[in-house]
Design a protein that fits this description.
Two copies of one chain form a homodimer.
Chain A: E1 3-11, E2 19-28, E3 31-36, E4 46-49, E5 53-57, E6 59-64, H1 80-92, H2 97-113, E7 116-123, H3 126-136, E8 139-146, H4 155-167, H5 170-173, E9 175-181, H6 189-202, E10 206-210, H7 214-224, H8 228-234, E11 242-246, H9 252-261, E12 264-267, H10 269-274, H11 282-287, E13 293-294, H12 307-322, H13 330-337, H14 339-344, E14 362-366, H15 378-385, E15 391-396, E16 399-403, E17 406-407, H16 412-428
Parallel strand pairs in A: 1-4, 1-5, 6-7, 7-8, 8-9, 10-11, 11-12, 12-13
Antiparallel strand pairs in A: 1-2, 2-3, 5-14, 14-15, 15-16, 16-17
Helix pairs in contact in A: 2-3, 2-16, 12-13, 12-15, 13-15
Chain lengths: 429, 429
């Protein structure tokens, strides 16, 4: 039952950001049982040689819309309004459950290939996403994104409840479910409260978009006389655990509220740049004690679901925005992509760092590359120089999803073929 | 002698950005002889099947410091002054010609692996760089970076002249030389004029850093009462062809001067972010008619020499800075990375686009990947979704430098080993 990874440099991302050079990791029944020196007496069933590799916690993509990968590179370089009204929304209205299944499996394939072991998806036909997660073996937080339907306000909440009953803690607790009212500008105050009450009743958290664009914040002031974050706060929504995507246009009062209520912001730098939304004040949020996590957003506004790319963007852009070369250090960006994501998903007791007793969700990164030569500093290498394509092997729950870059659980050729087929069908439907 | 690439989608980057689906490229004696339909009568000596691939011009890295790759990830997350004075400068002072040779060969390896076919390097011991370029087969613009030595102002200019005599138009005109006074803050007005006169005498161009940081611009106003660009303009330096790296803090008057004199700015978004220098007004420069090119800068401030990464950054960041999702479109970013780079190096008659009569400097990008699925728009795919690791095959002057990701001209293992060895020796020397 036991598995050993030897000769491996280990970036634990534990509370001291401990790094172990040339160590060992032992895994039994999907759990990390030992990290460090060789256990001489122990006979592993399988041993991996980690020479030239770094082991680190699998990345946690804390905010994405996976089915949208069918629209990757479909409608770029358009103004936001035209992009949404003429391209994205008309096509989204035609998305079938089959589209979502293949689009999501395409996204899971890309994520596994680039070192993501857990995603938090907000979309619809979420049963299909759950099915894909079970098949691929990736760890999943499923959240059914709800734009309020005034004609039948309970329908999508009931779908969320059914999704919860079907999937929460399924597959050896590899899948969980949160409630996802889309945003304060697509859900009424009353509906937001109902969504929060459902989350509270089920004992789970909320996933919501907050303060993504300047326009959204302006309109919130016009309509409610306050920022989106203060608006949601006053409704009592933050009384449940909340994962808040984007949080770009937040002021000091917004940050004070998030600190008070323990709100978990997700930084989405790639999407925020591509859609011209702006730059989140990440270092300020970190300084105030917020656990900022990291997500790719959907592939139609990124246009990748590659957490190594996002990690690099997160570590770079706030330096220039803040005019401070120390803003969002490599180590902080790496925490965003791993342990902070786990906190955002209330999963930090099990994932997000390599520690004894935690689930064996980890990746091996091949450092034997020209662009990772010479070796001076592992954390800098990971944040500033490594690519998703350097990920060699991926474990989730102690099971191998990719080995030496070969997909183990996913039929790669079929996924590419079916995703292409569904995408072409979708845009001509 | 002839080579044919068939079944290939071709992104030409010619003046109309023409794209040819499922076409052919014919190459003879290093020159592109035909693009488009199959030539039924022609018998090629070698045929490449380009199925699932895009052919595009090789990337042109218009500003880098290649020897610095030995310091990649050596001293990150430090304030600029401390980084320079305590880390970079003390180590640079100890760099040997052997360090430069192996560091530069490491850089060339990384660049070839990520689709760069031409670089413009500004550093010292440039003979070593020229030697490496001859061995690796990559196209090279060598520029000996000159920080003025007040005790012997002519020494480095003479080195530049010797470099020119030794290498300019060497290796079937695959190597050229420009004159590179480092910056207006490291070279006196008199010296800048001397450098310009040397370039003029030799019939070549100048390569210089201009307006990289706010501090530099402020100090120029304090010392000369004008911006670095106006200062250099008033000296008559721009009377020769000038490639100007960074150009971050430029105002409307600076841009007007650059337009008047046909100065070629190089955008270095990765380095400008990492060092907290800021964001160049790229779209404004494009709108005014400047041919903005793209460069990685050195690996100690990037920390990669990967033009696909730089292309992606260039296409993303100005959107958020300008609050305009149409700023620096995919197509414009791709022109920056290819044909505009060629213009910056005065090489546009031979490279930078795939056109009959031009040198066969081209790359094949493998699109058969999950993150490049589905296929909606080739240019968007290249700028927003593709990675350097998707580059499959690289031709320079019609010769293969990488084939199916296997290095052909470079001993990969030796380069990694020697670069690591020299780097460890260097920092403990």
């Amino acid at each position: 039952m036991g598995l050993r990874i030897k000769n491996i440099d280990i970036v634990t991302m534990n509370s001291e950001n401990k790094i172990i050079m040339n160590g060992n990791i032992y895994i039994e029944n999907g759990i990390i049982t030992h990290i460090g020196e060789e256990l001489k007496e122990y006979k592993a069933d399988e041993t991996f040689n980690g020479r030239h590799m770094i082991a680190m916690p699998g990345m946690i993509n804390a905010h994405t819309h996976m089915g949208m990968s069918l629209l990757r590179n479909y409608a770029d370089d358009l103004p936001l309004h035209q992009w949404l009204t003429e391209k994205i929304w008309p096509v989204e209205a035609k998305l079938s459950s089959k589209d979502i299944y293949w689009g999501s499996l395409l996204s899971m394939t890309e994520m596994i290939q680039t070192g993501t072991t857990t995603f938090c998806d907000m979309y619809f036909y979420m049963d299909e996403v759950g099915k894909g997660a079970e098949e691929s073996g990736i760890r999943a937080m499923l959240t059914r994104g709800i734009i309020e339907d005034r004609n039948d306000p309970d329908k999508k909440l009931n779908e969320s409840r059914e999704l919860f009953n079907r999937y929460h803690k399924a597959s050896n607790d590899k899948i969980r479910v949160m409630i996802a009212p889309h945003a304060p500008y697509t859900c009424s105050p009353e509906f937001l409260v109902k969504a929060k009450e459902l989350a509270s009743e089920l004992g789970t958290g909320l996933h919501i978009h907050l303060s993504e664009t300047e326009k959204e914040v302006q309109e919130s002031y016009e309509k409610f006389g306050k920022s989106p974050i203060e608006h949601v706060y006053n409704l009592g929504v933050f009384d449940v655990h909340t994962l808040a995507a984007h949080c770009v246009h937040v002021d000091d009062n917004d940050i004070r509220i998030m600190v008070e209520k323990g709100v978990h912001p997700v930084n989405n730098p790639g999407s925020n740049m591509k859609l011209a939304s702006g730059f989140a004040p990440v270092q300020k949020m970190i300084d105030k004690g917020l656990f900022v996590s990291l997500g790719t957003d959907g592939a139609s506004s990124n246009n990748n679901l590659n957490m190594f790319k996002e990690l690099n963007l997160a570590a770079l852009i706030n330096k220039a925005v803040d005019k401070d070369a120390l803003s969002v250090k490599a180590e902080d960006a790496l925490r965003m992509a791993t342990i902070n994501g786990a906190r955002g998903l209330q999963w930090e007791n099990q994932i997000g760092s390599l520690e004894v007793g935690k689930k064996a969700d980890l990746i091996l990164v091949n450092m034997d590359k020209p662009h990772l030569t010479p070796k001076h500093n592992l954390v800098s290498s990971l944040a500033y120089s490594a690519y998703g394509s350097d990920v060699d092997t991926v474990f989730v729950d102690g099971k191998i999803l990719m080995k030496n870059r070969e997909m183990v659980t996913i039929d790669l050729e079929k996924v590419k073929y079916m995703a292409q087929k569904q995408a072409m069908d979708l845009i001509t439907r």
